[in-house]
Structure formats: C-alpha cells, structure tokens
Amino acid sequence: MEPKDLLSLEAYDYELPPDRIAQEPVEPRDASRLMVVDRATGRIEHRIFREIVAYLRPGDLLVFNDTRVIPARLFAMKPTGGRVELLLVRRVAADRWWAMVRGRGVRPGLRLQLLSGNQPIDLHAEVEAEGEGPLRLLRFSVPPEGWLERLGVIPLPPYIRKPLHDPERYQTVYARAPGSVAAPTAGLHFTPELLARLREHGVRFAFVTLHISLDTFRPIETPDVREHKLHREWCILSPETAEQINRTRLEGGRIVAVGTTVVRVLETAARYGLGCSPEDVCPWRTVGPFEGETDLYIYPGFTFRAVDALITNFHLPRSTLLLLVAAFMGYDLMRRAYQTAIAEGYRFYSFGDAMLIL
Q1: Which of 131, 155, 288, 312 lies in disulfide reach of 274, CB 3.0 to 4.6 Å?
Q2: In whole angstroms, what is the distance from residue 202 CA to residue 47 CA?
Q3: Which EC class does it fall in (predicted)?
C-alpha cells in the first residue's frame, strides 16, 4: 500500500467475526490474553496479561488514566408522558450538561421530568439548546452531582449486549476521578496483586486524567481520515506526574502508556504543557504540566515525543483509536497484528484481550 493511501478510511477497515466481540470480562482481570509486538523486529508473541512483568524493566514508568465512569444513563418523561433516554456526555457547569437524547420532539424549551425506575420524581431538566444530531444542552433543577449515583446507570458500549452484573467490573481498580462515560479499557486488565508485583519488580507508577466522551465510539465517516473532527475532552497532567515522566526519561527508563487516552494526554503535554509551539522540542524536558481540553487527533504521520511503549486493547475498525495504534506501531505491522489476533482467536474491544507494543 502506498503511503498516500494510509490517509484513506478504507485502509482502516477489517472484518471481525461477531463471536470475537467480548461480551463479558474474563476473571480474574489479569487472565486475559496478551499479544506482545516488538516494533523493531516485527516479532509477535502470545502471553497471558499477568506475564507482562517479564517485558517491563526496573525504572520503567507505567502511566495510568485514573478517570472513573459515571452512571451517565438516565431516564425522563416529557409533559405528554413520552419516555426519553438521556446519556450525559460533557459537563458545562454544575447544573448544565450536553447529553445525547433518545426520543422524539425534544426541542429547546421542553421540560423533562426525571424518573427513578418508572416513577417520576421532583427533578427536572430543561432543554436549552440543540447540538449536532441527538445532542442537547440540558439545565438540571438540581446539579447531578448530588443524585447521579442514585438514579443513573453505567453506560456500556453499544456492541456489548449482555448485562453487567457488577458495575465495578467496568471500572479500573485505580479509578478515582469521576467524569467519563466510557472506561479506559486497557487498564481493566490490572489487579491489585499485579500492580504489587510490578512495584516489587521496580516499575514505577504515575497517573493522569482524561474524561472519555462518547466520541471514542464514533466511527470516522470522512473518506480522508484527516477531515474527521475529534471532539474535545478534558484532561490533566499534574506537575508531580510531569516531574516523574521527565525524571524517568533522564534516568533511561521507558514511558509506558496504559491506553490510548494516556497517549493523548502525554502527547498533548509534550506539545502544549511546555509552553512552546507544537513544532518545537524541549531538549531537557519531555512534558510539562497541562490542564484543559484536548482535541489532539493522532493518525499515521504523527511524531511521538512522550510515549515509548503502549498497552492497548483491540479496537473497532474505522475508529480514531485504530488510527492512533497504526501511527504508533506502523500501519503494516498493525495490519499483521490484527490479522494474527483474529486468526488466533483473541477477544476484541472493551472486555477483550490486550496488546503490548514495545
């Protein structure tokens, strides 16, 4: 395939047998399979996730996304009695959220009454504005922070059709910052016991936050992938984490991103957290502290400045996540790894198996 074709959406399509889409997580978390891919040699190995310890060195820094999935799925009723489903997407203020709305005739000025089960309660949401497609800006009579845990439901990706018996299974064991509508799935494979083994091995840990929006599941629809618009997501890389990353690099350790969301935070902080232009490279610091929104869109041709290795799941075709992986490991190797995963019976997507790209 010619390099120019790597910007064509068709290059990121593939056929996946439906039975390869994981409908439930394996137990324990670290019993999932792990494909290990060496970018330098092209070698592919097949392991169990808990064996990742063998590929990490003392002095390496694992960077995790500590976001926590909120119970963002709500149900409401129109004045006519019609039922409406709400999915909170992005917080604008304490009482105002953008939400995806499933229901007819939901226009600005409409007042929705929230439901607890099938019972109306004394909480309301007024539609203030329309956004793209089903997006609506809602103003709540009482900020959701006080009642969301009681009324809301954890939203699962649309390709998962089995109910989740334990909502905590869609959270990482280190999740602590509420704000996402989807889990950073690469982190779902870690157990407290595995983290303890890694720490004993000399691997260090650092945390960033990126609150994941539904854009993570939105397929690219433009024939040229460069024309796709990535929505903004809020993220933070603290001064303490920036110091850990910079010190690790100076001491010869590797920065290992746990998931594509961490890649986006680190690469954003490598460009904008240092206070220099995106074209400049700081010779003595890898990243600087950063807090704000990012719309960093990574596809083949991107130059990585902060990430040395990546732990990630197997992603949807025609997705921005797949493009990020192709940019990091190289398109041809990505295609070969995915073809191998399908042939070897790996489980795909949120509750699926993982890949370590070195």
Answers
A1: 288
A2: 21
A3: transferase
**Contact (CB, 8 A) for 185 and 350:** yes
User: Could you give the C-alpha distances from 101 to 131, 132, 134, 143, 213, in angstroms and in order?
Assistant: 11, 11, 5, 18, 15
CB contact set of 165 (below 8 Å; sequence gap of 6+): none
The Cα–Cα gap between 221 and 95 comes to 33
| Beta strands 96-102; 135-140: pairing state | antiparallel
CA distances from 240 to 59, 161, 177 (A): 17, 40, 17
Name the amino acid, one letter, at 22.
A
Q: What pLDDT score does 1 carry?
A: 39
Domains of the chain: 3-69+166-357 (3.40.1780.10), 73-151 (2.40.10.240)
d(CA 348, CA 333): 18
**Count of residues in the chain:** 358
pLDDT tens for residues 86-123?
999 888 899 999 999 998 899 999 999 999 988 999 99
Site of tokens 């929230």: 114
Cβ density class 327-349: b for 16+ within 10 Å, e for less: bbbbbebbeebbeebbeeebbbb
CA distance readout (Å), 35 to 44, 51, 55, 185, 248: 7, 11, 12, 15, 25
Which residues face 208 on adjacent strands? 65
- Residue 281: predicted pLDDT: 60
User: Could you tell me if 243 and 206 are in contact, meaning their C-beta atoms sit under 8 angstroms apart?
Assistant: no
The model's pLDDT over 269-278, given as tens digits with 9 standing for 90+, comes to 998 877 666 5
